[in-house]
Design brief:
alpha+beta; Tumour Suppressor Smad4; 2 domains; 2 helices; 16% helix; elongated
Length: 300
């Protein structure tokens, strides 16, 4: 009889060890995934096309727009690599051309250029110009056309270690049901006050603490993109809300919405971004205590 008890105890102990190991493996998998995601997030922010190096935004007026460090220019940017007169942009007929000042070495793809077409409405090109550590390109926001300026040696690139975050918690990784919408557009307003209709494939429906919530999504490549706010907005997280990506739904119409990967919009890092804002229906009435907290560095 004692042997039988010992055998049962042995197998029971093995089952406990197997279960504990399975839980540990799942936990490790989740944490490994989060650590990799956070590292990629930091690398993306610090990349040449990231948001940390964005140091200027200049809206063009029709005609000639002088660019340089001297106050006589229409577009003034003080920087060691910016000459008093670098050249000028010409905005005419929905086109932007660049003309460099004499002896100013502006480049496109490492080739010296003295004149260049930088923008033509409805054409899919936006060449990146360079001058020393500075880079700029043309952006359009409705009827506004401007210069987005970056500094590849921006001091913040050396000091930024990441955003403050809530503690990673796998309970915020939720299964969501995808539903197509009859109305396939979503009105999105940006920080400039401009509103545009954008294609929306549908909405994600999920449950938290037994209650159902939903978020309208935008399509972006092979992912869904979500703009959302919640009860932490302005009380620990960025006031205007956060962003989140999910995979496309599987064959059963389900996907995973992981609020641990909720992240700050570009406007949390720089005043020179033109971020979209969450639509009203995407403001959740509960606190999503997961993902990135507010980052004030670029807005002070």
């Amino acid at each position: 009889m004692q042997n039988h008890k010992n055998i049962r105890f042995f197998f029971f102990s093995i089952l406990i060890l197997i279960a504990a190991n399975s839980i540990a493996q799942k936990s490790k998998s989740f944490q490994t995934d989060m650590n990799e995601w956070k590292q990629k997030r930091i690398s993306a922010l610090k990349a040449p096309n990231g948001w940390l190096n964005l140091t200027g935004l200049f809206w063009l007026k029709s005609g000639k727009n002088g660019f340089g460090s001297d106050a006589s220019n229409e577009l003034v940017y003080k920087h060691a690599d910016m000459p008093k007169q670098a050249g000028y942009f010409i905005l005419e007929n929905h086109q932007v051309n660049w003309v460099a000042a004499e002896n100013i070495k502006t480049t496109i793809k490492d080739s010296l250029v003295t004149k260049a077409l930088l923008f033509e409405e409805d054409e899919q090109f936006a060449p990146l110009m360079g001058l020393g550590s500075l880079r700029w390109n043309i952006i359009q926001r409705d009827d506004k056309i401007g210069i987005r300026l970056r500094d590849l040696n921006a001091p913040v690139l050396k000091t930024f270690k990441g955003c403050e975050r809530y503690k990673d918690d796998s309970s915020w990784r939720l299964t969501a049901r995808f539903e197509k919408k009859a109305e396939n557009t979503l009105l999105i307003t940006n920080v400039l006050g401009q509103t545009n209709a954008q294609a929306s494939p549908g909405k994600l429906i999920f449950s938290i603490a037994g209650k159902e919530y939903q978020l309208d999504a935008l399509g972006e490549g092979d992912q869904l993109f979500i703009l959302f706010g919640d009860a932490t907005s302005g009380k620990g997280t960025y006031p205007a809300g956060r962003f989140l990506y999910t995979d496309l739904p599987d064959a059963n119409g389900n996907t995973i919405i992981d609020f641990n990967k909720a992240f700050n919009p570009p406007c949390a890092f720089t005043i020179y971004a033109t971020c979209p804002l969450p639509p009203k229906q995407n403001i959740l009435p509960i606190a999503i205590t997961a993902g990135e907290k507010d980052h004030h560095g670029g807005r002070r």
